[in-house]
Amino acid sequence: MQEFHYKVHWRARGQRQGFHAATTQGSGMEFVGHAPLSGYSDPRRIDIRASLASPTGDWLVRLHRTRAALPVCVLLDLSASMGFAGVRRKFDVVEAFVAAAGFSARRTGDAFGLIAADDTIREQVWLPVTHARSAVQTALTRLEGVTPSGGSAGLLEALHWLPRTRSLVFLVSDFHFPLDMLSSLLDGLAHHEVVPIVVWDGAEAERLPGFGLIELADPETGRHRTVLMRAGLRRRWIERVAQRRADLCKCFATHRTRPFFVDGAFEADALTRYFLGDDEHAR
Amino acid sequence: MAPINLAFSEPGWLLSAPLALLPLLRRDADTVNYSWLALVPPDPLSTALGWLLRIVAAAVMLAITLGLAGLHRPQVPVERVGKGAEIVLLLDRSRSMDEPLLPKGSQPALYSGRRGESADLESKGRMARRLLSEFSANRPDDLLALVLFSASPIPVMSFTQKQDMIQGAITAGGVGKGLSETDMGRGLLAAADFFDQRAYAGSRLILLVSDGGAQLEPGMRERLTTVLKRNRIGLYWIYIRSAGARGIRAEAGDSEAMESAPERSLHRFFEGLGIPYRAYEAEDPEALKRAISDVSRLENLPIQYQEMLPRFDFATRCYAVAAVGCLLLFAAALMRVRRWP
After folding, report:
1. Which of A6, A163, B76, B250 has the most other CB atoms within 10 Å of its CB?
2. Domain at A150, CATH number
3. Interface mutation target, options B30, B36, B46, B55, chain A, most CBs of A under 10 Å
């Protein structure tokens, strides 16, 4: 099972001890300041040097911030387009990512949850945010035998199923829906730290057939289109996909987030680098 | 032109005509899933091609249905308008016509080979048919009918304007040998009968091509006079001279016997009929030209007549359309991509 490292740029608000910098005071290495012993009666933390220097003559106690756990949540798009199988099945990539995210969350000591939606919430896949060590297995079991279907409209509804506290939300989708909807979805997620995981397949853009007559079917709308594939159209197609990628990046940028593109198999190390500020997968 | 009316010989097959709508419906075979069609750039050519293939498929199924149902146009009478004269070609088909035409004054010689098939001498029948074909070829606007006669008249073809039919009928008269007897009176009556029960729509003419006269009985003469006058028919006689005969026109030095030869007496009878009558001798190369120009001088009235348009079967064409469409669809199927590479 792959593992990636993640961090957020804000302080977690959780009460549970964990990995992330938090606003909670308690035992920890991060010094906040001094407080009178009368207020914070913890004689173990008496700072003798500071107390001697204190102009008021009070006994001063060192205050520290503890590190806390963070809810990690995967918001999963199960619309029919996620069932696309090109070079590899998109859903395999999704499962690999959910496994890695759950595993990484457990290793980091964070709670893990999974919410999936197509046109509505997929309640049978729903895993409420939990610290249970079995969360990964539960999530993967619930994803077993799931067939993506329908549209993506349920994602907007899924916003209400997320934890109230600020969380790290992995938004896993191929983002094959209008930019307006993406914009309102990101608006609804503004409260959380959102990491868009864009699952695309090589067959959607680069590995197009060179020539032929193709009857395309859209799994979400069920509409058909006949396409006479030829060099000019292939070039325009690839350009259009590149343009879509640029549009997505722009939309994410206006919502102060960077997308993580998965064009082939999911690589946990690449995601770690993403959290370290590497932009290689955001292009 | 009459309105086109179509009919089906097996209308039961038409029940399967709605099947032609099937290709217009969406079908899931041969489709390739693509995650989002909005990513596919708009392409009018592809869209047009997609609809074209669907319409071709529908047309193929419709064409096959129509073919199975036996689409045809039943035979219909059609009004046609010709211009010129109504002419009955009356051709002598007796055995004497198989004999060669000899130059004036020469005697029949003994020659080997089949009768009438001598290498350098054209038989009279063949010459008559040649004259008639030239005549009809020069009068494309006339309505022509053809009657052969020997012992009894054979109506071959009723009035038509179609050159190929006329020429075919004239050629067909040359098959086989003629009979020995000649009954010109009944032949003329049969030719005149063509005009009976027929509205007077233009100049009427009988063009008689014959090699000899006949002594007509008084009764027959009377009937002929009546019917020719009643129907207002003109008579042109192209006379093909037999061996030893002296021609229809009287010449100086002709004996009494010659004067009473059948062709002479027939000529006199025709002249005395009181109808437009002209006689030509076929030996004279100018005779035919004169005959044609004489006919042209006749009133060129428009002639109305009815013709049967034969039944026309469209099934073969339907299948041809279907076959061409199937070829197109087959080519498209060969180009089809069924799996993503």
Report:
1. A6
2. 3.40.50.410
3. B36
